[in-house]
Amino acid sequence: MKHLSNTPLLATALVILAATIALAAQMMSVQVRSGQLRDKPGFLSKVVCELAYGDRVDLKSENRDWRQVSAKNGKTGWMHVSALTEQEIVLNPTNKDVETAASSDELALAGKGFNKQVEEQYKKQSKLNYAKVDEMEKIVVPQNYIQDFIRIGCLGKGGAK
User: Fold this and answer.
1) Are 29 and 85 in contact (CB under 8 A)?
2) pLDDT digits (tens, 9 = 90+) for 133-147
3) Who contacts 99 (Cβ-Cβ below 8 Å, separation ≥6)?
4) Model confidence over 14-24: pLDDT tens digits?
5) Where are the alpha helices (DSSP H) in the chain?
6) Which candidate, 67, 48, 47, places its Cα nearest to that of 57?
7) What is the distance between the alpha carbons of residues 23 and 58, in angstroms, rounded to a whole number?
8) Which residues are within 8 A (CB) of 53 and not within 5 positions of it... i.e. 6 or more apart?
9) Quick one: residue 97, left, alpha or beta (phi over 0 = left, psi -120 to 50 = alpha)?
10) Is residue 1 over pLDDT 60?
11) 122 and 25 Cβ atoms separated by less than 8 Å
């Protein structure tokens, strides 16, 4: 009879534990330099806001390769799964984190399959002009320009008629 009196307490503890695990599993981090939060799941959808590398977001739902997330600024939208990771990114590690943490540049390059040493070796061997690549990486096309391009070129759903 004594074990029955503990049942509500045990049930409450299990519910709290399950809720804690569920909430922890729903947090994700932005793993690209600048992540675009969009109003619909699609690369041509309107950008709601941009999130920085390492920003934490709350996972709300999934639609194929897109995740509906809520940012700390209160905005909700869709991000492609390739821009997110389930791991927390530590940008300014404490002494406790130093052994397992890496700089944001190292993590960004590692996400692309490179590290500084591999990139330098690749540049020496290939003898390509990487200054042009660096210039291209700095080009930012405004969202309204892309929307106008799609509209004028009839590139939306149904394509040109």
Assistant:
1) yes
2) 888 888 988 888 888
3) none
4) 777 766 555 55
5) 2-5, 7-26, 104-111, 116-126, 130-137, 143-152
6) 67
7) 9
8) 30, 31, 32, 33, 34, 35, 89, 91, 104, 107, 108
9) alpha
10) no
11) no
Name residue 81's amino acid. V
Structure tokens at 155: 């590139």
Amino acid in the structure at residue 96: K
- Return the H-helix or E-strand segment holding 37: strand 34-38
Could you tell me how far CA 155 lies from the centroid of its own chain?
27
Q: In 3-state terms, what secondary structure has residue 62?
A: strand
Amino acid, single-letter form, for residue 61: S
Helical ranges in 63-156 per DSSP H: 104-111, 116-126, 130-137, 143-152
φ, ψ for residue 27 (rounded to 5)?
Answer: -85, 140
Instruction: Quote the radius of gyration of the chain (alpha carbons, Å).
Output: 22
117 or 3: which leads in pLDDT: 117
- Is 89 or 113 the better-scoring residue by pLDDT? 89
- Each residue's pLDDT tens digit, 39-91: 999 888 889 999 999 999 999 999 999 999 999 999 999 999 999 998 888 77
